[in-house]
User: Fold this.
Amino acid sequence: MRIEGKEIVVTGGTDGIGKVAAAELAKAGANVTIVGRDGAKGEAVVRELKALAGHDRIGFVKGDLSVRSGVHAAVGALTDRLAHIDVLLNNAGALFQRRELTQDGIERTFALNHLGYFLITSLLMERLKASPAARIVNVASGAHAGAKLDLDDLQNEKNYSGWRAYQQSKLANIYFTYELARRIEGTTVTANCLHPGFVATRFGDNNGGWLRTVFGVAKSLLAKTEADGAQTSIYLAGSPDVANVSGKYFDNCKAVRSSAVSYDEGIARSLWLASEQLTGQ
Ligand SMILES: NC(=O)c1ccc[n+]([C@@H]2O[C@H](COP(=O)([O-])OP(=O)(O)OC[C@H]3O[C@@H](n4cnc5c(N)ncnc54)[C@H](OP(=O)(O)O)[C@@H]3O)[C@@H](O)[C@H]2O)c1
Assistant:
């Protein structure tokens, strides 16, 4: 796969599967901008990726994607730098064992994993539409299976569980992708989402205690490598096979069905409206 000169933005490109995807896409000839919250780490990763890719067309943009001001800061820097965007890979995400609020007063899992994708995509839509053929790729998860969204309690104010909030945020990624695909139908932009598999990254390490231990043991026994886990993201970002595919959920580089509830268009629409309100769009 050669994708010479494509402008690709990868959120959460400083670690895990986002970093591997950024490296592979850069090696395939793309200009890659990674978005992350830590300036020093971001610049170090850029140096690493330049060496791996053998070219200098790799940059870093800073922004904490769990807060509105951070998303706006990242988007300001991206739009200064890029006249058009060919691929937006929404990948930054995490699980938070304890319920916390961001400085915007929003539950952190929902804020980062769902509203982060929603807001950066909305704010970059003009740059995506400026590309002759753009792709939005949302990293969701098979963890969405079994989850339901409570539209009256999107931020889990009642009875928070970190795992359930994470599952719901990944279901929200799928609703968002399907609703987005319906809204951009007929434009030059596509939107798809994916499950990367269970991957041995730093995912979950931000939590202490038993959760970190359980994740650590499970990852050492069962997980894919980061290189394998990045494959579906790389495929959806770059492969000519999916140039005209939109509104699908992928696993192992194949379109598969997501959970039955994820196809509920009424919930997807309501989530969209709530997300607009919560992000000030
Ligand atoms: N690992 C799995 O088994 C698995 C399975 C299914 C889905 N996923 C999904 O895959 C995606 C990537 O996860 P991963 O496994 O690669 O995890 P990871 O190794 O922890 O990497 C997460 C990335 O997101 C960035 N990030 C976290 N919080 C951020 C914030 N507030 N603002 C900006 N960037 C932020 C991290 O930045 P720092 O470098 O600053 O930490 C890092 O680059 C997530 O959406 C996750 O839900 C993972």
